[in-house]
Write a structure and sequence with these properties.
Blueprint: E1 5-13, E2 19-26, E3 32-33, E4 40-41, E5 44-50, E6 62-72, E7 82-84, H1 98-109, H2 114-121, H3 125-139, E8 148-155, E9 161-163, E10 170-172, E11 176-182, E12 188-194, H4 198-208, H5 210-214, E13 218-221, H6 225-234, E14 239-242, H7 244-267, H8 276-279, H9 281-285, H10 294-311, H11 314-325, H12 327-331, H13 337-352, H14 359-371
Parallel strand pairs: 2-6, 8-13, 13-14
Antiparallel strand pairs: 1-2, 3-4, 5-6, 6-7, 8-11, 9-10, 11-12
The structure holds zinc ion (ZN).
Zinc ion (ZN) binds at residues 34, 36-37, 39, 73, 75, 78, 80.
Length: 380
């Protein structure tokens, strides 16, 4: 550590008899400059020992004892009568060394939970979080406007009900976050906004300004009508695309609904593992991905929609209507793989960040998890 020398290292045992080491450190200079008047003093008034926490080193626990001096200020016109020496790595009143702060911030930013990092280094949750927040805010600079953007949602935790004391009514807290991602560049996840509404999306986009919005060419969304409405309103020039995966998932759900309803109607009970339609349900849900020319796709779509319509099954009619309603966007789909990847990262980050009750904190954490791979992290 700069400006510090090790005086001696002792072998010690803690209360439980576990071996450890105690490192005694000092500042070797016999003078220090007053922080107020910058006048140098060599007059030591008293000595104190502090216990700053430092990085772990080796298998045994390590304790630091800093033998500090308090100097008298020699400048007569200085209001300060005394000051205690400090260094850049161990500033005044710091209980943790700078290098330990940076190490915990990096660990938390790499996706580990704040609580786990704190336990390992013997630091409290608020302290680790404060250093993580400083580190994260430095990384999360306002992104460039992306050419291709993605919008989707992530559900946060379990539903919570909060009572409004004034009206006595219970309200469900917002569960969904809308995520704005950059699919073309290296921005990763750009931002998040509370709620799953057109207004949340329109407001966020309008805040970015006209020049920013005009550069967005393609927007990838989940098949949610509110997102489509918002994009058409705020980015009328942009092409909306929807991953065909969503329509395949809807078809799977419709098939399950038909199977369950027919089983109830014909057998008068729920499906059992021995029923052939239950045993083969995975076969029914299987769907192969293949690259087909546009004319073949269009022909198959027409055949599929007609087949649904002719089946007379209400579940398949609903499915056909939904697919029809989202077909232009699905056909325009280029690749939504990266938003899905981002979405998965968000879910991972939300899991380890379960100890976050503050929405701003959670968003910061999620954005770091989704962005830090593509941004140069400054060295410690
Ligand atoms: Zn002074």
């Amino acid at each position: 550590m700069p400006e510090i020398t090790v005086v001696k290292v002792e072998s010690v045992a803690d209360d439980g008899g576990q071996p450890g080491r105690m490192v005694h450190i000092e500042r070797p200079k016999d003078w220090a400059a007053c922080p107020d008047c910058r006048v140098i003093s060599t007059t030591v008034r008293q000595r104190r020992t502090t216990r700053p926490r430092d990085l772990p080193y080796g298998p045994e626990p390590l304790a630091v004892r800093w033998h500090k001096r308090q100097f008298a200020c020699a400048e007569q016109r200085c209001a300060r009568k005394a000051f205690t020496e400090s260094t850049a790595e161990i500033p005044p009143r710091a209980r943790v060394t700078g290098r330990l702060c940076r190490a915990v911030a990096r660990q938390a930013a790499s996706g580990r939970s704040i609580a786990a990092v704190g336990r390992e280094c013997g630091l409290g949750w608020p302290l680790v979080h404060r250093h993580f927040a400083v580190h994260a805010d430095a990384l999360l600079i306002e992104p460039e406007p992306p050419r291709v953007r993605g919008i989707d949602e992530t559900r946060r935790g379990r539903p919570q009900w909060i009572k409004n004391e004034a009206t006595g009514r219970w309200a469900r807290t917002e569960l969904f976050e809308t995520n704005f991602g950059d699919l073309s560049g290296t921005g990763g996840l750009l931002s998040q906004a509370a709620g799953r509404t057109s207004k949340a999306v329109v407001d966020w986009l309008n805040t970015r300004g006209h020049a920013w919005k005009s550069q967005v060419r393609i927007v990838a969304i989940d098949p949610a009508a509110c997102y489509r409405t918002a994009i058409r309103q705020a980015l009328p020039h942009a092409v909306i695309v929807v991953d065909h995966f969503h329509l395949v998932a809807l078809a799977g759900k419709a098939l399950t609904a038909v199977r369950q309803r027919i089983t109830r109607e014909q057998r008068g009970r729920r499906g059992r593992a021995t029923d052939p339609e239950w045993a083969n349900r995975r076969l029914l849900l299987a769907c192969a991905r293949e690259q087909a020319p546009r004319s073949v796709i269009s022909h198959r779509l027409h055949r599929f929609l007609s087949w649904c319509a002719d089946s007379g099954l209400s579940e398949l009619l609903t499915l056909a209507e939904t697919i029809d309603a989202w077909w232009p966007e699905t056909l325009a789909f280029i690749t939504n793989a990266r938003t899905e990847e981002t979405n998965r990262l968000i879910k991972d980050a939300a899991r380890v960040a379960f100890d976050f009750h503050n929405l701003h904190n959670q968003r910061r954490r999620v954005r770091v998890a989704c962005t830090h791979h593509t941004i140069n992290v400054p060295a410690a």
